């Protein structure tokens, strides 16, 4: 049997019979599935290496880099081929169009009362060229990955329409109108109006001209008598007939029951209006019939990677449909899925609709109180790379949750006898009741019938299947998590376990892990909730009374019936559904809190103001990296104004050089080690493709984070008296003023006293690092969640935050009254437009595109290069290694502009080194950094540079295959993004650093040939990079074992090869180098203080050293750690953090107490208190406003 396959229930009389077929034949014998002959790469673009579970999981180790160096510190080089690293292009699968009819409809066993015969027709694919293969528990009938092209395996793309239009619209196809009945001028105009863009930019004006006014069937005569409102109604009526599966939103009211506070007055029911919704079953039907559903996976599988060095097969996690949760649920459905009584002989294929929900309240305008609380639904059957692409229409708007109207308070005050004293508790209870009443309404009888018996749907491939909807996960921030879990922040704030808040600082201890996985797993306490409601509704006890709290407070439960348990049954795993939330819990939680406290510690030092100013200066001095991986930092990073999650991610990735040297020596080492481990944890947690070794490393690394955090709090934090930051004090004063104003207006408090100047006196408030928070406590849950549901980007709340963009844009074109209904109508209008576009798009792509399996060996042919530049993000551009413009508008004279007579050390050996480089390439000599290719003057004279002209370009694009078998791109610019990395010829040596680094001084090209007495070669265009080399520091060790970043520095110009030339083909990708600010600048590396091509304008010195940012993105860290499947031969290191037992000598005294003491941190500073249940509308609005600014879109590095 398959490893981890469901264990048959022998007592129930189950008999398991399995047959396995291994695909070892060409595609004709196993049609539609990957095989070794076709070498499909990531036939699933989302796979990576993993390890077979065992008692001793395999580990990987980054060896300390101690390469051999010259006397000047430059790496020694030998005549080995370093730079032209092995790289393969991701490719698509073989077409799956010849599956036998019997395979499309496999008979399912009819349920029997006593003996259940389980027959599994398992299937295993052959190993492709990346070492990837799949194992299916049930033979698949359809493989959507056969439709993928190289542009589908690309991480960077430029969709024509971010909001509504279907991306990759072929240029030779007209943009289809909403209505397919005709193409009149009015319909073309309406199509342009409803393309999802509410602000019409210059690009949209171009679209109006090219796609509407110049359309061959556009005739102004058609516009006589045109009325937009009337035309929209006609089109919507026709669209409703054309797309019957896309159901309109409906409006409804939901009832909630409110206690009276008296045994003589019965509870009252209130109808809350304003719920706009669509049936869940109608959404499932539409999604599985949508043209996009041809990319749905109906058969989950396990992904494996065969490690080339050992031949071991390790498990790969990358998508929900190759996770354990999906495989187990699909197997249950296939074997035990119930059939409706009227269709017991149904033989249709059974499959799972993997439902993934997101919801979050959002403000719709910068001014005013307009807000929307949407529930979004996405399907785990679809790849995360499609779900994450704007304009694909993968998201479905389920409902817009209404708010309690103000009239409810007036109504309650009329009958509740204790309204004045229990108002806050009652309103909080009503909001919980409303939230779950909405979900009870959505989980209607039709959905429950589909949940039990499935629904028959004709899918996009033309095959009917019985689809069983299953809720896998619900992604939400902490306030919404506790609403869903029907708990509250308090003694046990975690929605997944019952560990007390006072013990959450013990995160990482073995006893902490064993407790949260043992008896302290949280379960829904139906009996306690029922008893509590009985006391509230029948016996008239207060919601916060001692009688009720005795039942609920020990587990932080609330007296609200959970809709998911009530409708789906006690077997539904509610708390497993509430997956971790990396963006809010770590980037905006643990890291933001630590970063804030580090700023407090800087302020607490004697020269704190100068230290904070230096920190801000260092962040401002850092260069950007990638297309948008590292962006420009704000002027005052320490103030953290208007920063989103992606900004805090950048702050972490660049924190080590910034904080280095700002603390005393002992504390400095501790802070840098902690920052390194946090950057490491951040990188591994956000991997888009995990393996068993990387998951094991993450599991072992998490307790190390806990140990370092406690040590930091126990030592460094206790040496300084830290107080709240100025912006924290201002925020506290504003909140106090608002609360006082409310109490004054209610007549319960006198106005606050003020001094003679008319301002309130501000007192400094002590603040300490708080480790007793849910967000810190949740860190050990990530490895297990990834193993169950796959990588964190599958269920990241970042996706839900990004979906708010559309409703905010649509709000701007509403009348601002009853905006929910208007947004709902416009959403439906966009969905119909996208469906229409998708139909035409897939007709054009009805045949799988042929993508070459071998890299083109001559990418510089004029015709091919022209195609590359016509579309720098298109499929042709993705196939080549790099891209440099053909422009020759900036010619320079070889002997005038690069003459050594000017005294520029960068040009001292420019001409002879260039001749050596060109000659070595013309003679096809292996690259060695040109250190050993020294030719005689007579040989150099054989090099002919046409017209003695060198042409300069501005940009240099490098395409590369990522660790997760996708295509990505770096852009280098000699004036802004100048650093590159190439493979080191010494990488095979133990302890050697895997890469060389260089600063690009110029991106050059010339027409060259070789002329001898007897022969002349044909002139060719040759591209080359003029570079300044960097070398590593002798004696300095770095890597995961030491917890230190690599350090590099420029080679002094006393080395004749401090400058040289590089074939662009040898560049692996751009390098992220950050100055070691602590060491400062020096002018000793270049024997000049004048202007030089080796420095940026107005610079007269160089940074003495640079940190290598190995955590700048996930692909980069895997290049240093090793094990990236897409890297093939980049096995440069191993994971080394060792699993440790609890240190019996580690003291935790003072950590818990200091975290909660009134002198150090207020209750409102903790995450759970700040994100508490919604005591009032204003409190909810305040929290949402804070989250809105914090969770502004991150761009995944």
Automatic annotation (TrEMBL):
Family matches, as InterPro entries: Plavaka
Region entry Disordered, spans: 25-60, 728-766, 1137-1197
One Pfam family per UniProt: Plavaka
Transmembrane segments: none
Segments of skewed composition (Basic and acidic residues): 728-742, 1167-1182
Compositionally biased spans, kind Acidic residues: 1137-1146, 1155-1166, 1183-1197
Protein name from the UniProt record: Uncharacterized protein
UniProt source species: Mycena indigotica
